[in-house]
Amino acid sequence: MARKIIKKLIIGKHIIDTLSIGMYNNPLMLFREYIQNSVDAIDQLARSRKGYVKNSRIEININGRARSITIQDNATGIRAKDVLRKLHDIGRSSKKVKTNRGFRGIGRLGGLGYCEELRFITKAKNESIYSVSKWDCAKLRWVISNNNNDSLDVIKLVKNVAELSQYKYTKNKRDHFFIVEMYNVRSSRNVLLDVPIIKSYLSQVVPVPFKDDFSHKGEI
């Protein structure tokens, strides 16, 4: 009679490397991932208000001297009680394939391979606290490359390099936002800090409305 073998499965640390820098053949794709998330959040806000959201925006700030990138939107933000699940869980997303641009729960990992520190800062409307999810990317890369840590699984790795803090919000309680901050950005030929190249790339890939005089607008 065959004996059923039961063994606890472990997902190793290298999967994080695969889901971040290993996912993209072009570093500029991380802009697309973060902007898609912002657009999905703006669409969600529009649905909750049953119409167009006035003054919705996505702002991108590139600081070549400080080697930093900031991507910010004023969409739904994330409620304080949901931040840990939504930003620290891997591959777990409540988004829908047919209605959202990003739905796999891994796109936010895109920045891990291109900076020393990655931060997600967010607040939902009518909450009196805001949340900061900070990832130590330099430590992450060291742990992944260190052969002495081969037994480390994904859960322990994330707990090792990511921390969540929450603070009292002293400005308007009705504010709502999501901010991505990347510090000490590094990429081949500094492409992630090259504003003209970034503008050209975004003009081709970001989900923005068609011009009114585009003849195929309605058909598409």
Write the layout of secondary structure elements.
Layout: H1 14-19, H2 29-48, E1 58-63, E2 68-73, H3 83-88, E3 117-123, E4 129-136, H4 137-145, H5 154-161, E5 162-168, E6 177-183, H6 195-205
Antiparallel strand pairs: 1-2, 2-6, 3-4, 3-6, 4-5
Helix pairs in contact: 4-5
The count of strands amounts to 6
Number of helices: 6
Gyration radius from CA atoms, angstroms? 19 Å
- Shape label: globular
Task: State the low-pLDDT regions, or none.
Answer: none
Largest sheet: 6 strands, antiparallel
Helix and strand succession? HHEEHEEHHEEH
Integer average pLDDT: 85
Which structural class do you get from the secondary structure elements? alpha+beta
**Percent range for helical residues?**
25-40%
Beta-sheet strand percentage?
15-25%
Q: Give the terminus-to-terminus CA distance.
A: 61 Å
User: What is the topology, as strand order, of the major beta sheet?
Assistant: 1-2-6-3-4-5
Describe the protein's architecture and organization:
There is one protein chain. With 220 residues, the chain is of the alpha+beta class. The protein is 27% helix and 19% strand. A six-stranded antiparallel beta sheet has the order 1-2-6-3-4-5.
Sum this structure up briefly.
This protein has 220 residues and is of the alpha+beta class. Helix content is 27%, strand content 19%.
